[in-house]
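Hi support team,

I submitted a single chain yesterday and got back a structure, but I'm not sure I'm reading the token output correctly. Could someone confirm the output below corresponds to the sequence I sent? I've pasted both exactly as they appear in my results page.

Thanks,
R.
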Amino acid sequence: MVFSRSSNSPVDDGRRVRVFPAPLLWLRSPVRRRIPCDRTAFSLVELLAVMAVVALLAASSSHLVRHMGQSGAVTKAGRDLSGVFEAAKAYAMAHNTKVWVVLQQHGDDLTVSVGAEPSDGGEADLVALQKPQTYRNIRVVDLGEMGNRPSSPVATRVDLVDGEEVRFRYNRRGELAGEQMPAARVIEIGLQYRIGEMSPEPDNYAAIHMPRLGGSIQIHRP
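Hi R., thanks for writing in. Yes, this is the structure output for that exact sequence:
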């Protein structure tokens, strides 16, 4: 039996049967096997547990980021203010003049201005040496009254309330003096991050110690 060329029907001619397979169509359309899957969807309890864990992680990370931002603000204000006093001292000695550094408290914001004595020797209109800098949520506080360290027991401490200002002067010899301040070897300026009357981080403060006669300015952080 053979297959005729015109059709796929067998023809019995008495000879040995030879079967020619049809075109291999199965190569073009392979059989798709269904793979059994034992996985099931998450239950509602599992989804709620995952959401709770994510919420806790987000809350803890936001607190950490806020703390780092507040701590960085105090550190930056302390370093900038220390640099301002160092620059004012150097300018006074280099130009044989007097230089004033003025701190003004406006609510929770601290503004720092620097001015030099005019050529005629008057103090009414100082010559500004730089643009006033404002530090948001930075208050000048008396660290000694707050019981915080590293407040110096021998320093003259500065405390400002809203609307007040304090002036510091460097003379031609680089000696520091504060207006209406008792004589002391060191003047201490305490900086703290504040929002309103309450500080979100009570230990987030810096103490700037400025010697009156020579020496370098030191910044202390808890």
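A quick pointer for reading it: The longest strand covers residues 99-106. Let us know if anything else looks off.

Best,
Support desk
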